[in-house]
Amino acid sequence: MLSYLEFGMPSMKDKITRVAIELFHQKGYFATSVSEIAGQCGIQKASIYYHYASKENILFHIQKVTMDELTGYLRGNLDGRDDIEARMRAAVHSHVRFHLHRQKETFIANSELRGLTAAHYREIVAKRDEYEQIFQQIIREGCETGVFVPVDVKILSYAILTLCNAGAIWYNPEGRMAVDAIADIYETFVLRGLQKGQFPGITPKPGC
Amino acid sequence: MLSYLEFGMPSMKDKITRVAIELFHQKGYFATSVSEIAGQCGIQKASIYYHYASKENILFHIQKVTMDELTGYLRGNLDGRDDIEARMRAAVHSHVRFHLHRQKETFIANSELRGLTAAHYREIVAKRDEYEQIFQQIIREGCETGVFVPVDVKILSYAILTLCNAGAIWYNPEGRMAVDAIADIYETFVLRGLQKGQFPGITPKPGC
DNA sequence: CGAATCCTACCTACCGGACGGTAGGCAGTG
DNA sequence: CACTGCCTACCGTCCGGTAGGTAGGATTCG
């Protein structure tokens, strides 16, 4: 879970990356200057370029690592689960947990795509597509086997992912709510929205 | 629905605003220069400052108008509806419709808050809070009257609003899907997630 | 009525400053 | 003596914003 932090003495490159994550999250990529990153690392601006070829490369590195770890985490959480409902629950839970624990990186990955060069943009979008495919496959299977109501897979997958991102925006690590409690709320809401078991269009009587 | 466009000859200020919306949406606020806006309006950079006091003022104006119209649209759509389920459906529908029709402005309003001065930031956040309150009130009433399952009102309201924003990111006005069809999908999903009528935690047998 | 004045809506030219990035040097380590 | 990891000093560019001017239509006033 803790990347950018190696054992032993953390390298300056790691420090730069961590500071960049902090600043990009706080002020945005374009509003953050290289001198500012350097300043908070206690080094000069030019020294940044010893570790990274360009400002854009810092952004790209953050996004790449984050996307790889996000997908890896999901695969790990799905591993060994066969039941479709269990897989969907695990997927939502994994997504939310990662977004709460890695709040800043995922925020950057979601909102700073425009700072990337065309080539790097394509690379990140490809990783994102790969991640979405996993969700879409689960939803599709759920619909086909009749566990879920029939839905537009693409629209719903995107809706669910976006919905689960919401937590990362307001989540406060020092706040009252535990990560798993929040993940449970999203999990319940999503599953309720997907599962059969009620009659769509017909309002149940209050108190029923 | 069509603001920034007066009858008769549209003013240069309107043109600046429309061009700014286009560019802020396309490249982001910080990545857009005043000269660029001017260029696409066919005037010089300095002339922009005849119509707007600063670049930030353009952003603020866009956000303010958008938020006011968003809230006005919601109020209009809720007007006269008493039934809680109908109100929730109307609210979701209104939110989605507005975000699809005013894709670019709402995107800016959601993602470019950091470009605002502190005072303007507070003003926009206040408007946003006011809008969210309307949703929260509906959810709260639904829970209290037993129409909806008991939920964490704040978390769910935020989740629902974020989820409905998803459409505006991928929506293509020239695409295959009609605005109302998309709104219906979100409406159904949200209502299904909120309403009573299934037994949470118990998986219904496939085919049931 | 015509002359003087004002206002609108733009222009050219410029400012200080910050930005991303580079060149080249230097201290410490192996 | 080479390499690592940093430094100082500097570059050209572009930015938001300002100063000051001007064409021309509307308004005011002797």
Protein architecture, described:
Chain A is mainly alpha-helical and 208 residues long. Chain A has a domain at 57-194: Tetracycline Repressor, domain 2, CATH 1.10.357. Chain A has helices at 12-27, 34-41, 45-51, 55-78, 84-101, 103-111, 118-144, 153-170, 179-194. In chain A, helix 4 (55-78) packs antiparallel against helix 5, helix 4 runs parallel beside helix 7 and helix 5 (84-101) runs parallel beside helix 8 (153-170). The longest helix of chain A has 27 residues, at 118-144. Chain A is elongated. Chain A binds chain B through residues 27-28, 30-31, 85, 111, 114, 145-147, 149, 151-152, 155-156, 158-163, 165-167, 169-170, 182, 185-186, 188-190, 192-193, 195-200, 203-204, 206-208, and chain B through 27-28, 30-31, 85, 111, 114, 145-147, 149, 151-152, 155-156, 158-163, 165-167, 169-170, 182, 185-186, 188-190, 192-193, 195-200, 203-204, 206-208. Chain A binds a DNA duplex (30 and 30 nucleotides) through helix 3.
